[in-house]
């Protein structure tokens, strides 16, 4: 498993020449989920002028759908889809609802508005890479923990699920073939005075 998607569901609104553009995005795993979300948004914003959409599904982005929902052909759905593609995102649906403000934007203006709405929403919601990786559990004293960032920076890794109790417990995730060598370097970094153990593989999300 290895794909990129949005970090969280959510929405972003902007006003362009008196029209409101509300981009709502959701993580999905099937086309049916995407269609259900689009219908949900259309019901919620039934007084809106348009609710255009784009979705990409599958680890290899095999399913791609888009809709202009009444806007001139090619001015909404495809530009929205293109933004998802450029960000290499999948398993996601985007719906941009427009409340017309009385000023026509023209073909170029519509393309920029719909694409820009999705792009801005992605920036706000964040992106993650979903991967199946091997875990290493690390147990540290607080003084040892203060040094951990140095090791992680050199190894280009990040800590996850850190807990601060009597001691600090945290996890790092990496490719299976790198586990043994990284674990050896970690133990060497702390001169053997550390508790670290393999945790097997699991699905994790890494921000990028």
Name the overall outline.
elongated
Q: How much of the sequence is in beta strands?
A: 35-45%
Compute the average pLDDT: 95
Count helical runs. Answer: 5
Tell me the Rg in angstroms. 22 Å
Strand runs, count:
10
Class from secondary-structure proportions: alpha+beta
Q: CA-to-CA gap between the ends? A: 17 Å
Largest sheet descriptor = 5 strands, antiparallel
Helicity range of the residues?
A: 25-40%
Low-confidence stretches: none
Q: What pattern of helices and strands is seen along the backbone?
A: EEEHEEHEHEHEEHE
Summarize the structure in words.
Helices cover 33% and strands 39% of the residues. With 208 residues, the protein is α+β, with helices and mostly antiparallel strands. Strands 1, 7, 8, 9 and 10 form a five-stranded antiparallel sheet that branches. Helix 2 (77-86) packs parallel to helix 3 (106-125).
Summarize this, please?
The chain has 208 residues and is of the alpha+beta class. The chain has helices spanning 31-44, 77-86, 106-125, 142-155, 179-189, and strands at 2-6, 10-16, 19-27, 50-57, 63-67, 92-99, 127-140, 160-164, 168-174, 195-207. The longest helix is centred in the middle third of the chain and has 20 residues, at 106-125.
What descriptive keywords fit this protein?
single chain; 208 residues; alpha+beta; five-stranded antiparallel beta sheet; 5 helices; elongated
Topology of this protein?
Elements: E1 2-6, E2 10-16, E3 19-27, H1 31-44, E4 50-57, E5 63-67, H2 77-86, E6 92-99, H3 106-125, E7 127-140, H4 142-155, E8 160-164, E9 168-174, H5 179-189, E10 195-207
Antiparallel strand pairs: 1-7, 2-3, 3-6, 4-5, 4-6, 7-9, 7-10, 8-9
Helix pairs in contact: 2-3
């Amino acid at each position: 498993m290895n794909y990129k998607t949005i970090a969280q569901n959510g929405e972003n609104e902007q006003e362009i020449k008196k029209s409101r553009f509300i981009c709502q995005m959701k993580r999905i795993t099937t086309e049916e989920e995407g269609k259900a979300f689009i219908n949900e948004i259309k019901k919620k914003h039934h007084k809106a002028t348009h609710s255009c959409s784009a979705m990409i599904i599958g680890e290899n982005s095999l399913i791609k759908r888009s809709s202009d929902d009444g806007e001139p052909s090619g001015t909404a759905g495809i530009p929205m889809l293109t933004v998802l593609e450029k960000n290499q995102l999948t398993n996601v649906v985007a719906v941009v609802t427009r409340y017309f403000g009385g000023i026509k934007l023209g073909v170029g203006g519509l393309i920029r508005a719909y694409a820009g709405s999705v792009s801005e929403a992605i920036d706000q919601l964040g992106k993650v890479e979903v991967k199946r990786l091997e875990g290493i559990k690390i147990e540290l004293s607080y003084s040892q923990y203060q040094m951990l960032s140095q090791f992680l920076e050199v190894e280009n890794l990040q800590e996850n699920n850190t807990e601060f109790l009597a001691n600090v417990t945290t996890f790092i995730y990496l490719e299976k073939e790198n586990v043994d060598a990284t674990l050896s370097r970690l133990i060497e970094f702390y001169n053997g005075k550390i508790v670290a153990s393999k945790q097997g593989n699991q699905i994790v999300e890494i921000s990028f």
